[in-house]
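Recall the central idea of this unit: under ordinary conditions, the amino acid sequence of a chain determines the structure it adopts. In this exercise we apply that idea directly, starting from the sequence alone.
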Amino acid sequence: MIYRTILNHVILLFGVFIMLSPILLIFFSSSQSTSDLRTSGMQFEFGNHLVQNYDSVLNFESGFTDEITPMGMLLNSLIIAIGVGVLTTLLSFFTAYSIVFFKYKSANIIFWLALSTLLFPLEARFIPTFQIASYLGLINTHLGIILPVIAAALGTFFFRQYFLSLPEELLEAALLDGAGSFKFALDILIPLSLSRAAAIFIIAFMIGWNQYLWPIMISTDDTLYTLVRGIRFMGQGSGTSMAFTMITIAPPFILVLIFQRWFFSGLGVENKLSQK
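Accordingly, the structure predicted from this sequence is:
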């Protein structure tokens, strides 16, 4: 039994190392000079340029009027990621709510049509989406970057499956107490769905944070640059680019670290582990 436990831990530690090794490689390389990286490649050891590289990143300015700065890009990334996270969660919640609790014949058809959108990535819809955004006057706006991403069928699927697992007596009791559809959602469903909503928010936040192609198409204004887009300014394979990459991946990592209990609980992982 003890050998099986040791083997399981070895396998888990090996998996953790495989998953974290790219991040560790970037972190160690962010302390190297650009010349060392170009001659020896990325390395798993500390260099002597850590402070210099991160200082260069934090004092970086670019663009025609030096409006592209790390703080400006960080602010844009936060606005877009939080906007995508909040709106995706709300839209997914109310879409699933209408499908499950409003009894109409086409509910399942609408759900499967929404779920089928997972087969069509955003890149396949760039041209018509750009035309609609242009017609609505959303070019060079945060809203133009956010709106095309918020219709996430995966969030609707998670909420729908959770709502279907709730006992029907819950709705009947609310109706007997005189609660309308809005009050039922606000006072009962939302409190019950907080962990699920947190998990969907985190996933949507990371999707919004990691956007690259769509912001390039929809915005040409220097003040709308995000951190992900800013990596190219640092020079490919340089020490400053590695430092900038570490700064770029830090906020989503911190978010997951802080809310990991809600995240795993919302996905149902924690309950399954506790049952075992």
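Residues 11 and 17 are 10 Å apart (CA to CA).
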